[in-house]
Specification:
Chain A: One of its GO terms (cellular component) is plasma membrane. Chain A: This is histidine kinase. Chain A: It catalyses: ATP + protein L-histidine = ADP + protein N-phospho-L-histidine. The complex is a heterodimer of chains A (460) and B (370). Chain A has 460 residues and is α+β, with helices and mostly antiparallel strands. In chain A, strands 4-3-7-6-5 form a five-stranded antiparallel beta sheet. In chain A, strands 9-11-12-14-13 form a five-stranded mixed beta sheet. In chain A, strands 1-2 form a two-stranded antiparallel sheet. In chain A, a hairpin with a 2-residue loop joins β5 and β6. Chain A is rod-shaped, with a radius of gyration of 51 Å. Chain B folds into three domains: 32 residues; 152 residues, D-Maltodextrin-Binding Protein, domain 2 (3-Layer(aba) Sandwich); 144 residues, Periplasmic binding protein-like II (D-Maltodextrin-Binding Protein, domain 2). In chain B, strands 1, 2, 3, 4, 5, 6, 7, 8, 9, 10, 11 and 12 form a twelve-stranded mixed beta sheet that branches. The N and C termini of chain B lie far apart (49 Å). The chains are: A alpha+beta (460), B alpha/beta (370).
């Protein structure tokens, strides 16, 4: 496969990877936000505990607020070794009792619940927690605030740990998915690869059905391939047969032309010579007809197998065929009244239909030298078929021969007096069969033969 | 609006007042101990100097010198200026924003709590030190503070004046000794003034958490009218001279060096517990040569550097945990007690809280010198 060519395998894999990447990005964003939330929730409690433990140690000594910082208050924050911590204890009038005077001062909430917010302190992002305590000592009574801030190292570490541990299985799952898709595609392609191998291995003349066993999904491909090869084989063998037949059929007229010509060379009598020339001429006509019909048959076989089938108007084809006939033949053909509103479309090779009509008319004119040829074109009762009937007033065909005259090179017993190849009705039969129809030979009431061709009707 | 303004002014004034109180309290200490501070020693580069490293430190030049010189052997083109500080001025110079042009590249301090505060408040820059990977938790924090020595608080005594049966082997012994014979030791005991010495305060707070006997010992020190000193050197000198008989909570590294020259000076590593502080080193945020500073720390914590440190400071932090065997060998101690190092970390900040510190020191002073 060349680089530019579209590859389903690559497209699917690429699509899957893009989809997984988008999904992964979404998950990453979600889990990241969640892990930071989780880390904040966990560490905020510690921060609150630190602030509360300081708040518990606020006392009034000699009318002044003072606080004895418990060792544990900052030590519990230091449990995460990397954390830096800051604190400030402020009197009700916001003056600093102890700690870092420039630590962000929270809005006084005046309740006992801890409050948290983010800030920048000492050039680092910090999480600030604060608690308020109401201290009663005379006129200066009020809410004392304890603010404790810590840097985010431990929080970030926990958050990234959560993130890492949740993303690792997801990433693994994504990888496995890609692997599965890739293996799946490879497996799905395997029968095609096997098929390709078998086709490459075959000799060019081997058109037997494919033997490689394939899964259900590919069997329809294989059966259409087999069908195609079968049809191809059919065309090949009919062409081969035609060429053999042609040689065989041409041998007799050519041999007799040659023999007649040899005799004619030494003939002195002009009357006898003219007879020889007439016989040579009629042999040449025979040979020409044989060649024409064989070529027509080959052409039909070729067309039927290889061309797309357009819909053609049978009436129009008929009228064209009649026009090609010699004048006396044209005059003998009589078309029955047509119902106006019906179109007579059939689907198939126009060439095949033309040969079909030509041969029917030719046969009728040839074997019934007298009387009209009655042609009827109509649709069947249910409208699904188109029927073409050509009726003559000739000798007809006995019932036991009706089937065999449709075969190649088989002629009826009544036809000995007429020159013919035995191909005409066979061409009609093959052309009708190729279009999905059939031919029937019937006795005409009052003598004569009716050739009826029934073809599936094409939608207009 | 006016009210808000007044409120703001009030806050500013109260802050300023607090800072003032704090400042007076510290400077009170500095005045007493200024005799040895800000001494500058220049360690010339062995070749043409191409770089200069400025170290501010509290370790005396006799201890720090060999470490610096051995570093220079590997970096012969580096000139190193070592300026001696006390713990608190060292801290203050690190947080002041005015002396940008004289900013040190390294700060070496025995007051680990002040170093923690420097790091916590963002005045220190992190350094990824490979040699620090083996350090125990209590000797390193945030890749910013690195402990490189062990400084045990020991008891020293004058061997000529103290009878062998009187020698206190533990804190318990010391309490009993002072309580039983207050008259004999009146004015003859020396210890840190924890209001002045950062290391003294660190030892005292650590011991107060560690031992139920701490306040009893403090009380006993008060009974005998203990003399308070700013620095280890002065305490040792006092013992050597015979002015004091026993000095308590003395930095072991200095004592160890002095016993070599002074036969009458004796060291006791207490048997019940020993507080050890690590001397720590940090790179200030405003350091001018942070890369060279990092190299220096890397060297100090390397095996070679630690060997020199062990030689000149007595104990290194090399190896995991606190090495009792190393201490036994160095101090010829029979049974050094349980070793306790104050952890580098946020807990150290609690005792630096101005109110807590003030209260602790006030209480302690009320008991020791009523």
């Amino acid at each position: 496969m060349s680089g530019r060519q579209k590859s389903i395998k690559r497209d699917i894999l690429f699509g899957a990877i893009v989809l997984l990447a988008v999904l992964g990005l979404g998950l990453f964003t979600y889990i990241r936000a969640y892990s930071f939330d989780a880390a904040d929730t966990a560490f905020d409690r510690v921060l609150a505990a630190a602030a509360l433990s300081i708040a518990d140690n606020i006392r009034v000594e000699d009318g002044h607020l003072t606080v004895e910082l418990p060792i544990a208050s900052l030590e519990i924050l230091g449990a995460a070794r990397e954390t830096r911590a800051f604190y400030a204890v402020r009197a009700p009038d916001h003056s600093l009792i102890t700690g870092y005077s420039d630590l962000p001062d929270p809005q006084p909430a005046q309740d006992r619940k801890p409050h948290f917010f983010d800030a920048i302190y000492s050039n680092d992002p910090v999480r600030v927690g604060s608690v308020q305590r109401y201290i009663d000592f005379g006129e200066k009574s009020g809410w004392v605030s304890v603010t404790v801030a810590e840097t985010r190292e431990a929080r970030t570490e926990l958050a990234s740990l959560i993130l890492k541990n949740s993303l690792a299985p997801i990433a693994l799952a994504g990888l496995i998915m890609c692997l599965l898709i890739s293996t799946g595609l490879k497996r799905a392609w395997a029968p095609l690869v096997a098929l390709e191998a078998e086709l490459i291995r075959r000799s060019p003349t081997d058109l037997t059905p494919i033997q490689t066993s394939v899964p259900r999904e590919v069997s329809s491909l294989v059966s259409s391939l087999n069908l195609f090869m079968q049809r191809f084989d059919g065309v090949l063998s009919s062409l081969r047969r035609i060429s053999v037949d042609t040689t065989h059929e041409m041998r007799t007229p050519l041999a007799s032309i040659r023999a007649l010509a040899e005799v004619a060379v030494s003939e002195r009598d002009p009357g006898v010579l003219r007879k020889y020339v007439q016989r040579i001429h009629s042999n040449a006509i025979d040979a020409t007809r044989i060649v024409n019909q064989l070529l027509a048959e080959a052409a039909i076989a070729h067309h039927i197998e290889t061309t797309e089938n357009p819909s053609c108007d049978l009436l129009e084809l008929y009228l064209q065929s009649v026009e090609r006939l010699p004048t006396n033949g044209m005059q003998r053909c009589r078309l029955a009244q047509l119902s106006v509103d019906e179109d007579l479309l059939v689907r198939g090779s126009p060439l095949a239909f033309r040969e079909l009509i030509d041969n029917l008319l030719d046969n009728a004119l040839k074997y019934a030298p007298e009387g009209f040829i009655d042609v009827d074109l109509r649709t069947s009762a249910d409208g699904s078929m188109v029927e073409l009937e050509v009726a003559d007033c000739g000798p007809g065909i006995p019932d036991n021969e009706k089937r065999t005259v449709l075969e190649r090179f088989r002629r009826g017993s009544a036809s000995d007096s007429v020159a013919g190849t035995g191909l005409g009705l066979n061409i009609v039969k093959s052309a009708a069969a190729a279009a999905g129809g059939h031919v029937a030979l019937l006795d005409r009431p009052g003598g004569g033969l009716i050739a009826r061709v029934v073809l599936p009707r094409a939608a207009s | 609006m006016k009210r808000l303004h007044t409120l703001k002014t009030c806050r500013r004034v109260s802050c300023a007042a607090l800072a003032l109180v704090f400042g007076i309290w510290w400077s009170d200490g500095i005045a007493e101990q200024s005799k040895s501070t800000h001494e500058l020693r220049v360690f010339k580069a062995q070749t043409t100097p191409s770089a200069k490293l400025l170290i501010h430190g509290t370790a005396d030049i006799a201890s720090m010198g060999p470490v610096i010189e051995s570093f220079q052997q590997g970096h012969p083109n580096v000139e190193i200026d070592y300026r001696l500080y006390e713990t608190v001025p060292l801290y203050e110079s690190a947080i002041s924003t005015s002396n940008e042009d004289t900013g040190a590249d390294l700060l070496v301090s025995s007051a680990m709590d002040l170093q923690v505060k420097l790091a916590n408040d963002g005045h220190v820059q992190p350094a990824s030190i490979i040699a620090a990977r083996g350090l125990p938790d209590w000797a390193v924090w945030r890749d910013e503070i690195f402990g490189f020595t062990l400084e045990p608080a020991v008891i020293v005594y004058n061997g000529d004046a103290v009878r062998p049966d009187e020698v206190p082997r533990s804190h318990q012994d010391l309490v009993r000794l002072l309580e039983n014979a207050p008259e004999r030791f009146r004015g003859k005991i020396a210890t840190y003034d924890i209001g002045v010495s950062g290391v003294g305060y660190l030892f005292a707070t650590t011991e107060s958490m560690l031992s139920a006997n701490f306040w009893r010992l403090t009380h006993a020190l008060g009974i005998v009218k203990t003399r308070l000193f700013c620095c280890t050197q002065d305490m040792i000198n006092s013992v050597v001279r015979g002015d004091s008989l026993i000095a308590y909570d003395v930095l072991g590294s200095y004592a160890l060096r002095r016993i070599e020259e002074r036969r009458n000076l004796k060291i006791v590593v207490p048997e019940d517990y020993v507080v050890v502080a690590a001397r720590t080193i940090v790179i200030p945020r405003k350091a001018k040569h942070p890369d060279l500073a990092r190299n220096f720390i890397e060297y100090v914590l390397s095996d070679a550097g630690q060997a020199v440190v062990a030689d000149s400071f007595g104990l290194s932090v090399a190896g995991l945990g606190i090495d009792r065997e190393q201490m036994k060998a160095r101090y010829q101690a029979e049974k050094p007690g349980l070793l306790n190092a104050p952890a580098l970390g946020l807990a150290a900040l609690t005792y630096l809280d101005s109110i807590k510190r003030e209260q602790f020191v006030r209480t302690w002073r009320q008991i020791v010198s009523p």
